[in-house]
Amino acid sequence: MAYDLEEQEQLASLKAWWNQYGNLTSWVLIAGLAAYSGWTGWNYYQRSQAAQASALYDELQHAVDAKDAAKVLRAAGDMESRYAGTAYAPMGALLAAKSAFDANDLKSAKAQLQWASEHGDEEYKSVAKLRLAGVLLDEKAYDEALKVLASGIAPQFAGAVADRKGDVLAAQNKLAEARAAYQAALDATDKKNPGRQLIELKFEAIGGAVPAAKDAA
Q1: Nearest CA to 168 among 145, 200, 191?
Q2: I need a labelling partner for 145 at 20 to 30 A (CA). Which of 9, 158, 197, 214 fits?
Q3: Three-state secondary-structure class, residue 180
């Protein structure tokens, strides 16, 4: 059926527009489809990584329960190399570190804590640094322990950091500095925190004076 004059004009205008902007429109559409495809693909990849990491974390937990030290370290290493971008990797490193520490394998414990302190979110890094400082304290590597505690720990762990510093300084017989650290730990620790009593005991043991609690009105 022949087009009438108005339809022919509209078709001519459409052709002229397409000749001018058609290629650009096609590329914009292709770019949009590619971006959407990439976004959905990335989400799928992330879900897949998390699912596989979760299964490996379960395997790690079973190895810890079975006290199979070699399998624990192997599973942790697999998680760190293959699923470092998931939350399970630093979780696995912390669990493997505890298993190694309990088995008196301080070298492996430090290696796992060092990895966790460099990966994961701020909280995992902070916990790893605090535990690493504790292992170094046990090894009498006091300066190294203080260096670990000096930076890179989230503000909400201020009380725990000061407490651990107090332990290190007390072990060095730097009692005045240790008392200052324990005082800082008490200042940063909520009175309802069950760990506060232990800080008070250590503080008093090196000559600190804990203020008496005020009676409720």
Answers
A1: 145
A2: 197
A3: helix
Burial of 54 (0-12, 13-18, 19+ CB in 10 A): middle
In whole angstroms, what is the distance from residue 131 CA to residue 125 CA?
10
Who contacts 10 (Cβ-Cβ below 8 Å, separation ≥6)? none
Of 132, 149, 145, give the one whose Cα is nearest residue 94: 132
Q: What letter would DSSP give residue 190?
A: -
Task: Show the tokens assigned to 15.
Answer: 């052709």
Whole-angstrom distance, CA of residue 181 vs CA of residue 156 = 16
List Cβ neighbours of 213 (8 Å cut-off, separation of 6 or more): 191
DSSP letter assigned to residue 173: T
